[in-house]
Amino acid sequence: MADSGPSDAATPMVSAFYDRFPFPGDPLQDGPPPGYNWRWCHRSVLAAVHGGIPAGSEAPRILDAGCGTGVSTDYLCHLNPGAQVLGIDISDGALAVARERLQRSGAEAQVASLRQEQRSLLDLSGEGPFDYINSVGVLHHLDQPEAGLRSLAALLAPDGLLHLFLYADAGRWEIHRTQTALELLNAGTGAEGLRLGRQLLETLPEGNRLARHHLERWAVDCAADANFADMYLHPQETSYNLDRLFAFIETAGLQFAGFSNPEVWDPGRLLQGELLERARSLPQRQQWALVEQLDPDISHFEFFLSAAPLHRTLWTDDALRAATALRQPCLWGDPDPILGRNLEPIQLSEAGLRLLRAVSEQPETPLGQLADPAVIRDLIDRQLLLPRI
């Protein structure tokens, strides 16, 4: 289903750009995608923002708004069995890759329905409401990102969640200067720009900040031409600081429901002792503002939004004993987890391992029959177990 015309001034040039450079440039392969990203697992996201999985959350309706070459849609299908999934993108070239990716991975067999369509997220009248909307790296490429956010907000179910990824000013300081330099050199946004961009970063003197930053931070990610082009040649881009980010969220009347990389925003990873005590005494927004000032390498914001304020479940010991739970679907290793939900090595006590195995084998058994509250709470706090509310 194609739109009759663009609703955003940047749409034609952005669509043409991604036709030239289908993004992301992840290779195609047969079978399910490698690893797991919990941000694309609806049950994991619900537990992260609510403190548990609410009743009635089975078979979610999911929108992948700006799916590109289908990497995110592939995970959304494999991590949400039985879901109804719609993946959209304005680039026919990117969608062609997405369709092949999902066909080869067997994604359609995992879900109740799957559609992949060339459409703008601004033109989805008649769709939804959606329980989960994923829009990663998309809104900041619109001429009017606020219109995009309002469009997504209108598609969200009353208790639905929206996951966004937007560029951050500070961590793109070097990228922005490289982009401007290539514009001044009239490199363009096609094959010539790609050649000149790579040549520029290879030619700059040893020790040059822009070249060093690329080599240390982005060279591996930019090995694929599409990824390099997306970073340095994109014709339309907006970035934010924390204050402008929250002002942006307010334009759509949405509620901030938490960062999807909360560990980045914990002052404990940067401070200790008296300084950490002072930081932890600050209101939450000021703690985040402090982290933003102390870590100029933060290159993006990734976060959840909701239509209404959320109330996180606080589990008493008695409630934990009576609850049932799901083993976190986004763990590597069988039968024991090797890597956690963020691909970090995890170590569990013998009691913790026994509980994780028991929940896998007896998912309807109350947790109190399987372990002591302290063991249960440890696994829930680490989101290795997802309790049902």
Helix-strand layout with pairing:
Blueprint: H1 11-20, H2 42-50, E1 61-65, H3 71-78, E2 84-89, H4 92-105, E3 113-118, E4 130-136, H5 145-155, E5 156-167, H6 173-184, H7 191-203, H8 209-218, H9 225-232, H10 242-250, E6 255-259, H11 273-280, H12 284-294, E7 300-306, H13 317-322, E8 325-327, H14 350-361, H15 373-381, E9 385-387
Q: What are the defining features of this structure?
A:
globular; alpha/beta; Rossmann fold; 14% strand; 389 residues; 15 helices; two-stranded antiparallel sheet; 7-stranded mixed sheet
Describe the structure in your own words.
The protein is of the alpha/beta class and 389 residues long. It folds into three domains: 11-169 and 239-306, Rossmann fold; 170-232; 317-387. It is 39% helix and 14% strand. The chain has 15 helices and nine strands. The chain has helices spanning 11-20, 42-50, 71-78, 92-105, 145-155, 173-184, 191-203, 209-218, 225-232, 242-250, 273-280, 284-294, 317-322, 350-361, 373-381; strands at 61-65, 84-89, 113-118, 130-136, 156-167, 255-259, 300-306, 325-327, 385-387. A seven-stranded mixed β-sheet has the order 3-2-1-4-5-7-6, with helices on both faces. The chain has a two-stranded antiparallel sheet with strand order 8-9. Helix 3 (71-78) links the parallel strand 1 and strand 2 (84-89). Helix 6 (173-184) crosses helix 8 (209-218) and helix 14 packs across helix 15 (373-381). It starts with 10 loop residues before the first helix and ends with a strand. The mean pLDDT is 95.
